[in-house]
Amino acid sequence: MNNSVGSTMRNKIIIEKKKKNNTMKFIAWFYKYRYLNLLALPGIVYFFIFKYLPMYGIIIAFKDYQGVGGVTGFFSAPNVGLLHFRNFFSSYYFWRLLWNTLILSFYKLTIGFVCPIILALLINELRNVAFKRMVQTITYMPYFLSWVVTAGLIMVLLSPSGGPVNTLLGLISHIKPIYFITDSHYFRSILVSSDIWKNVGWGSIIYLAAIAGVSVELYEAATMDGATKMQKIWYITLPAIKEIVAIMFILAIGQILNQNFDQIFNLYSPAVYSVSDVFDTYVYRAGITNGQFSYTTAVGLFKSVIALILVIVSNSVAKKFDTEGLW
Amino acid sequence: MVKWGKKSLIGFMVCSLFLLSFSGCGKKAITTSEKASKGPVVLKFYFNGAANTQKPENEKVHKYILDKTGYDVQVENIPDNNYDQKMKLTLASQDVFDGMGTIPLTYSWVDLKNKKLILPLNDLLDKYGQNLKKEYGKNLSVTTDSDGKIWGLPRVMQETMFLPGIREDWLQKLNMKMPTSLKEFEIYLDAVSKTDLNGNGKHDEIPYCPWWTLWGFRLSMGPAFLGVNGVNYLTPDNKIMPIYMHPLYKSMLETLNKWYDKGWMYKEFATQSDDKKTELMKAGLIGSMNQWWFGGDATLKQGIKYSPMSPWTDAPGGIKGWGSNPSYDPNFAISSTSKHPEDVMKFANWVASDPANQLTLRYGIEGTDWKYTDSSKKSIEMIDGYTDRYLAFYNIFNFNFDDISLPIHPVDAISTDIARVKNISKDWTGLPDTQHLWPFSFTGTAAENVGTDGDTMINEAILKTIYGQQSINQWDATVKQYMSIQGTVVSQVQTEQWKKSFSNINPYASIH
Amino acid sequence: MKVKLSKGERVFETFNIILLVFLCLIMIYPITFVIGRSFMEETYLSMHPLAIIPQKFSLEGYAFVFNKDSYILNSYVVTIGRTIIGTLASLFFTAMLAYTLSKKNYPGRSVMTLIIVFTMWFSGGLIPYFLLIRSLGLINKFAVYIIPNLISAWNLILLRNFFMSIPIELEESAKIDGANDLGIFFKIYLPLSSAALATIGLFYAVDNWNAWFDSLMFVNNRKLWTLQLMLQQIISSTNVNSLVSPSAVLQQQIPMEIVKYACIVVATVPILCVYPFLQKYFVKGIMVGSLKG
Fold it and tell me: Which of B10, B51, B285 is opposite residue C244, by nearest beta carbon?
C-alpha cells in the first residue's frame, strides 16, 4: 500500500519535473531558433486559422446536419455513423462519378501526358532561335487564361448557331449544326482537348529544360556515325529525359482523382452530367445548391482520403528515383 | 527532446487561435448591441436584387425612412443568382438579422419553419400589424399553417400570363393568321424554317426559342400540353405526383423532340442566356418565343413586333390558356435571430399604412422623385431627371396597387407594349404554378435524405430525349427509375402533407 | 557554323516547322477570334460568323466596359488591386515560411511540412469556412481577397524545394561572419531566388487575376466584385443587363454579345502582356523548384 502511494508520489514528482523540464526545453528551443520561428510564425498562424480551424466541419460527414445553428449546430447534430457513406456507395451516383473521374484521368494520363513531351521534342529541333522563342511564348499563352475565359471561348467557337466550327462544317459537308457542348458523345473529348490546349505548352517547359541539359557532343558524335534525326531522338534525347518522364508520370498518377472543377463547372450542363460529373462538381451541386450538407461532406471526405493515399504512394515511389518528390 | 517542444508549440498556437477567433466573435456581437441600445433601432434585411439595387440614391430613401419612422433600415442586396446559396450559408451561420426575402430560396417557408429559422407572426400581427391585416385580408392564407400560425408576409402580384409571342410581320409575310391551335402553330414553325424571312439569303431563322432553358417553356406552354402547371400535380385519386408521371408528359416530350429535330427550336436553348435570346430577337432571327411576362417589347425599337399567341383550341392538356404566376406568394419572413421582431412588424405596418409609403420604397420620395398626377391619388408620374425604378428597398413588402396606375418605366419588362398585349389576352385563361400553393417540406420526413439524384437523372434524360440522343421509348423506364430513386418517397410525403394542410386549396379552380 | 543537312533532315525540319506553325495558329485562333469580333458591330456579328477582321470598326463594347456607370470598370480596378497587393503579400509570407521549412537543421520542419501538405487534401467545407470569414469580419471587405489566400501550400512547397537547392556553404560562411537567419534570408536567399520568386509570383498573380469563387461567396457588394466573377456571371447568367450596371439608361443599350467579347479581351490581355517578360524566369524557376531537391 504504502509503497504504491509512495510510487505514485514519486511519479507525480517526476511528471512535474518533466513538465518543468519540458517547458524550459521549449523555451530554449524557441530561443535557439527564434529567427526561424519568427519567420515561420505568420505562415503557421495563417494555416491554423484558415485551414485547420474550419476542419471541425468534417464531423458532419457522420452526422445529420440541417444547415442551422452556427458552430454549435455542427456539434449538436444527431450522429448517424456511416449512414451517408453507405448511402453514397449504394447510390446511383457512386459508380458514375468514379468512372467519369477515372476515364477522364485516363485520357489525360495518356494523350494529355504524351503531348507535352512530343511538343518539347519538336521545339527542341528548331534551329532558328527567334522562331523557337515565338513558338514557346505562344504555346505557353493558354495556360494563363482562366477557365472562365476558356469556357467562354469554347462556347463561342462551338456554338451551333453561328459558331465558326459549325459554320465550317456546314460549308464542307451539309450536315446539321452539332450542339457539341451538350452532346454526351463529344463532351469528354472537349474536356480533354481543351485541357491539352491549355496546358501542353506549359507542360513542355520541364522537358525542354531536361533536354537542354543533354550534352551537344553526344549529338555530334551520333551525327558523325551517320545517325538520322529519329535515331538521335530515340537513342539520345528520350533516354536523357527518361527519368523525369517517369517521375512526372508517377506524380500524375497521384492526381487521378482530382479533376479540374473550374473546367467542368464552367462547361457542363444537365445533358452531359452523365459523362462529366466528377466528385468535386457533384459535391458542389448537391451540397450548397441542394442543401445536402452532411451527405456531400461524406462524399468529399471519401474522395480526399483515397486521393491522399494515392499521392502518398506515388510520392514514395517518386522518391525511389532519387528526387525529393513533392515534399 | 525537441519533439515535445514542437507539440507544445502547436498546442499553444491552436489554443491561442481558438481564443483569438472567439474573442473576435464576442467583440462583434457587443458592438452590434451597443449600437442598438444607443442609436435608432437597426433593422437588417436580406433581399435579392439586381445590380441597380446597389447605388447611391438608396441613401436618400434610407434617410427618409429613418426620419419618418425612427428605424435604421439596412437592406443587404444579394445578387439574384447567388441569393439561395448565400442565404443558406448565412442561415447556417446563425447570423443575427431581422428579415429576409423568401421567394428565391429553395427552402420553402415550411422548411424554414421546421428548421426553426423564422418566427410565427400571429401575435405580432395582432398587436402591431392592423394595417397589414387589412391590406392582406384572407391572402395571408398562403403562409398560414394548418394549425393557424402565420409564418410570413405574402407578396401580392398582378396576375399575369406567360404569353408566347409570335412575330407579326412574319405572319403577314407568310400570309398567315395568328395560330389558334397547336396544329396551326406547327405550320407556322415549319413555314418559318423553310422561308428566308429576313432576306439575307440564308436559312438562319429560328422558328421558336424558349426562355430560361425548359423552365420558361413549362411555365408558359406546359399547361397547354398537360392541363396542369407545376413540378407536381394532383391525380384524380387525390395523390400528389411528380409531373413526369403525368400521362401526357411523354407526348409533350415527343413534340419537343420533333420541334428540335426539324430545326424549329433554337439549338442552344439549354445553355442560352436571356441576353443571347434578346440579341437574337433584335437581330431579327426569332419567329416565336416565351419570356417573363411577355417580353415582346424588347425589339420594338428595331421595329420588330411580337403579339401574344391565341390559346390552342386543340391543346393536348384540354385547357384553352397559358401558364401564369400565382396572385400571391410568400415573400417576407422574420428571422428567429431577430432581436426586435416587434419593430420589424411596426415598420411593415407603417409601410402598409399609406400607399405613398410603399411607393417610396419603390420609386423614391414623394415630391422629389414622383408625384400623384391628381388629387384622387389614383395614378403617379415620375418627376424629371429620375430614371430608375428599382431601389434597394423595392420588393421588401408588396401590397395590392390595383387601384393606382403606376408609371411606365423603360427598364420594366412590362413596358409600353403591355396595354396592347393585356387587351388582347384579357379573356384568356391563366393557370398558376402550384409551387407556392403547396409548400411541401422534407425536413424531418422520410424524404429528407433522399437527395436530388433522381432530379438530375431525369433532367438529363429529358434533354437527351429532346436532342434525340435517347429514344422516346426509354422514357417509361426512365420515369420508373426516377420513381425508385426518389419519386415514390417524395410523392408519399407530399401526398400526406397535402391531405393534412393543403387539400382546401384548389389550383385548378380558375379553369373549371 | 553551318551544318549541312541531309535530305531526310530537311524534310523533317520543314514538316516540323509547318506543324508548329499550325499548332501556334490553334493556340492563338480562339483569342484572336474574340479580339477581332469585339470590335464589330452587333448586327454584323451574326451575319458573318467566320469574320475576324471587322469591316465596320466599332468600340461600342469597350465604351460600355469602360463607362463610369458600369460595374465592369470597377471590377477591373478591384482585380488589379487584388493582383498587385495579393501577389506581393503572398510572396513575402510564402518566402518567410518556405525559408524556415527549408532549413534541414530546424527541428519542426518535417512535422510542419506534413501539416501544411495535409491541407492540400482536406478542408472543413464551405459552411465552417464561411463562418470563419464572417467572424473575422471579412464579408464584403477587400481584405477577403488577400488574407484568406495568403499562402498556397503548393507554391510554398515549390519555393521550399528551391531554397533547399541553394548551397549550404553560402549560409555557413555568412554565419561565420556573424549573420543571423533573418539576415541570411533577406541578404542571401531572397536575392539569389529571383527566378523562383518571379515564377511563384507569376503563379500567385495568375491565381489572383483569375479568381472568382471567393468573390462569389463572400462579397455581395457589386462594387467589390472581381473581373472574372463579372465575366463568369455575364457568360453564365440569364439576365446580364441587370448585372453589370446600376444605370437604367445604360442598361437599355447594351450590345451584350459584344460586351461579353470585350470583357474577355480586357480580362485576358493584361496577363498576356506580362508573362512573356517573365518567361526566362519561369522556365528556370519551374525546373529547379519542382524537382531538384
Answer: B51
Q: What is residue B244's predicted lDDT score, i.e. its pLDDT?
A: 93
* Residue of B363, B503, B274, A93 whose CA lies nearest to C235: B274
Nearest CA distance, C85 vs chain A (angstrom): 17
Domain presence at residue A304:
yes
Window 117-176 of C, Cβ < 8 Å to B = 126-127, 130-132, 134-137
d(CA C94, CA C197): 10
Distances (CA, A) of C250 to A196, B301, C68, C243, C247: 40, 15, 10, 12, 5
A9/A102 same-domain check: no
Residue A297, in any domain of the structure: yes
Domains of chain C in start order, with CATH, are 7-58 (no CATH), 61-289 (1.10.3720.10)
In whole angstroms, what is the distance from residue A119 CA to residue B90 CA?
A: 49
A202 domain-assigned: yes
Contact B101, B332 (CB under 8 A): yes
For A12, the domain range is 1-32
The segment with the largest mean pLDDT, out of B17-21, B482-486, C234-238, is: B482-486
Residue B447: per-residue pLDDT: 81
Query: Is A3 in the same domain as A137?
Result: no
Which chain A residue has its CA at the smallest distance from C217's CA? A288
Number of domains forming the structure of chain A:
2
Is A181 close to B271, i.e. CB distance below 8 A? Answer: yes
The x, y and z cell numbers of residue A252, run together, are 500524375
Which residue of A lies nearest to B459 if distances are taken between CA atoms?
A270
Give A9 to chain C, closest Cα distance, Å.
Answer: 33
Q: Is residue A12 domain-shared with residue A152, that is, in the same domain? A: no
C111 contact B CB<8A: yes
User: Does residue B486 contact residue A286 with C-beta atoms inside 8 Å?
Assistant: no
C-alpha span between B225 and B222 (Å, rounded): 5
**Residues A135 and A18 reside in one and the same domain:** no
CATH of the domain at A196: 1.10.3720.10
* Backbone CA torsion sign across C216, C219, C225, C230: positive
Average pLDDT for A244-256: 82
ipTM: 0.84
The verdict on A11 and A127 lying in the same domain is no
Please report the pLDDT score of residue A264 as a whole number: 92
Contact B52 C242 (CB under 8 A): yes
Predicted confidence (pLDDT) at residue B14 exceeds the cutoff of 70: no
Classify burial at C213, counting beta carbons within 10 Å of its beta carbon; exposed 0-12, middle 13-18, buried 19 or more: middle
B31 pLDDT band, cuts 50/70/90, is very low
Name the CA radius of gyration of chain C, rounded. 24
Cα–Cα distance, A224 to B60 (Å, whole number): 86
Same domain as A292, residue A158? yes
pTM of the model: 0.80
> What are B158-189's pLDDT values in tens digits?
667 888 999 999 999 999 999 999 999 999 99
What cell numbers appear for C52 in the block? 475576324
Which of A83-92, B25-34, B390-399 reaches the highest mean pLDDT? A83-92
The answer as to whether A49 is a domain residue is no
> Is residue A115 domain-shared with residue A211, that is, in the same domain?
yes
Residue A66 is predicted with a pLDDT of 84
Q: Is B395 left (phi over 0), alpha (psi -120 to 50) or beta?
A: left
Q: Do B5 and A29 touch (CB under 8 A)?
A: yes
A12 to chain B, closest Cα gap in Å: 19
Decide if pLDDT at B512 tops 70: no
Co-location of A97 and A15 in the same domain: no
Residue C85 reports pLDDT greater than 90 = yes
Option in B24, B54, B273 nearest C240 (CB): B273
Q: Do A286 and B204 touch (CB under 8 A)?
A: no
DSSP characters for C66-110? Answer: T-TTSHHHHHHHHHHHHHHHHHHHHHHHHHHHHHHHH-TT-TTHH
